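User: I'm putting together notes for a lab meeting next week and I want to include a structural view of one of the chains we've been expressing. I don't have a solved structure, so I'd like a prediction I can at least talk through. The sequence is below, exactly as it appears in our construct file.
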Amino acid sequence: MNSEQYGITEDGKPVLAYTLANTSGMRVCVLTLGCIIARLEVPDRDGKSANVVLGSDSVAGYLHRSPHFGAIAGRYANRIAGGRFSIDGNEYRLDTNAPPNTLHGGRHGFDKVVWRAESGDGEALVLRYLSADGEAGFPGNLAVEVTYQLGAANDLRIDYSATTDKPTVVNLTNHSYFNLAGEGSGDVLNHTVSIEADCFTPTGATQIPTGEIRSVDGTPFDFRRPTVIGERIRIADEQLLMARGYDHNWVLREAAGDAPRQAARAFEPRSGRVLDVLTDAPGLQFYTGNGLDGTLVGPAGNAYRQSDGFCFETQQFPDAPNQPGFPSAVLRPGERYHSTTIFRFSTGAA
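Assistant: Thanks for the context. Below is the predicted structure for the 350-residue chain, given as structure tokens.
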């Protein structure tokens, strides 16, 4: 693993770029700003490597224009309705950066801070951040640790860990936008996707779950068998119309044990690249880059338009702090939040 200075924040903090590499041709560049995966290079079926994540080309771009490209979203990834929640009868009001809701921790979430970094065991990078009590409205001093570990078999393991000194809520995820044909190569509508889920959580007009756990059977949300993204994304389904594509939480099947289980797979036929996602989290947000509108330009010099990337965000359910029927996202003193996600890359036949 090697490191170099990537840039400097407006308040003078240096941002470092760490590169993890293995002997199988995979390279991952991680920034201390937001734990951002700035580049992720993997070979195609012919052995040719390409960067398969969208991103920015500067610190300023990530701070002011990025829709969370490659970053760790927190303190609570996804949405909290009305920017408020209660624990033990105490109400907390948050930064409503996606009015009327809070999205990915607010305007100054974990993606906007510089983390402390050190080498881990093997080809690994450990990043730490102390989120102060009251930051963005969240209670408790939250000590957070994120570890990226690159394996020899082209698997990138992400371990999330956190402790608190007051009852709070936690939901951490990596918000990489993938395009397995290569960053800046066009849309991902030709990718085939499968998701290990029988149900999803439909949302209302502001993309807050209604509380219903709905079967995917007979809907455009049925990815139990491999399905091309573009096959149903333009169907006049109310859920797809409100979100302008896929931007929903799938209820993953329960794991047989504590180890991360298969959650999703994506396959790009021209390159042959395959991405498998394994996790111990209860949910997966599948997002098709609906907000990309051509105003952002990536490192390759190409503008990003709608559906030029997709996200597999492993997570607690959106708005779980306000939804008693969802798995709890509350963390209390003396407890440890821990979650693991693995992005595993390989190649397959056309």
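A couple of points you could mention at the meeting. Helices lie at 59-64, 238-243. The mean pLDDT is 96.

User: Perfect, that's what I needed.
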